[in-house]
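User: I'm writing a short methods note and want a consistent example. For Amino acid permease, I'll paste the sequence; you return only the structure tokens, no commentary, since I'll be parsing the reply automatically.
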Amino acid sequence: MANTTLKRSLGLWAIVGLGLGYMTPTVVFDTFGIVSDETNGVVPLAYLVALVVMLFTGISYGKMVRVFPSAGSAYTYTRETMHPALGFMVGWSALLDYLLLPMVNVLILRIYMTSLFPTVPAWVWVLGIVAVCTSINAWSMKGTSNLNAILVVFEIVLIAAFLVFGFIALSKGMGDGTILTVDPLFRPGTEVATVLTGATVVCFSFIGFDAVTMYTEEAKDPRHMPKAILLTIMIGGGIFFVGGYMAQALFPSVDVFTNTDDPLPEIGLMVGGKIFQLVFVAGAFAATFASALASHSSVARLLYVMGRNGVLPRRAFGYVHPRLRTPLFNIILVGVVSLAAVSMSLELVSSFINFGALIAFTFVNLSVIAYFVFIKKRYKTAKDVVSFIVLPVVGAALTGLLWVNLQLDALVGGVVWAAIGLVYMVFLTRGFRRSIRSFDFEDVEVREAEEELGYHRHHGHGAAAAADGGSGAGTGAGTRPGADGASGADTAER
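Assistant:
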């Protein structure tokens, strides 16, 4: 029915766990060969640069999630603070990386399984993995969270074991021969341009901290969201930096690897032997599966918000199953898209992901300025200037700097995707004769929501109040930023 809402079942650490699961901490070893080659052997420096950029952007996300405590992330923030049409284009761009991330995870898992069982057709693994991820996400968000927590703990324990084995190997003269070295952070020939290029690659690893905002309407206490965002960035970034530092100290040159595209199995073998290699690969599998679960669920919620706002067909994309309390149609759709992992190449898919992510990051920073400076007029004190102008400007500039350093394939593919979105918006608005905002509410649905929620009986609100809060789900899409984001969903929950 129109008033069915998402279930509030996630605590602070459950949300952080979902973010870390999305980020996949072991990816630092999967991409180590590529990034080391790009940066001339300073992988941890690239992660440090990316971490600084993500912290600025994370602060902006924390500000905006307080104002709009609803799912939708950059799409909602841009839509409410700047313009609905611009919000749609930002959401459409972000949709590219959100849709492709589940497919990338399934693709990686397919590669793992076909390498172990080459006689089994690849489609068998893809179909099985997609079926399991789709079923878990469809059943309940709490089930997804619990399984994700187990997998994340497992991979963190394995990374800790890698650090122990790595320290022992360094003490025996492997690589740089000592952990007390600055070589992983600076080597002769290190250039700013190459470090920035490496940072654009590793920022892919951080995609996940922003995805936790998709769970705002399922958080037990939405006030924990800013803390969850920063904790996800700092814990994930710390793991990436320490893991990258140790790996770079152990392997100053990538010439020792036979496969630089994904040296994780070789790293495990060289550092800890055959048994550790098997366990390490198992941990990578667990990490990737955790990311598959988290990315699958978050993109389903972005589609849900866009459907609830009417910019995607509402009856399908804005549907929440009345018993399961999950966006069932979207979850199944993401599973269907992920089936393309049977034939797609990892290089092709992964090259497009950062385009949408960096667009979203940039506009979240700009949304802070638009809302607090231009709407709320918060620029009269030094604290406000720093908080609402200086920090988001730096964040936008840094994400923009990474964006312009993307590979050409990613830029071309992203522009094509954006052009498709623009054409769709022109069609949707009948050549801009109809506002994007006009799709927010339908009178019939509002009346149904009022009747089923008992607005007149329990709250004394009229149709205008229901329209302001949304069609029973709380979109954060009304005309009063800061109030609407949670009104419908919170009312339904209470």
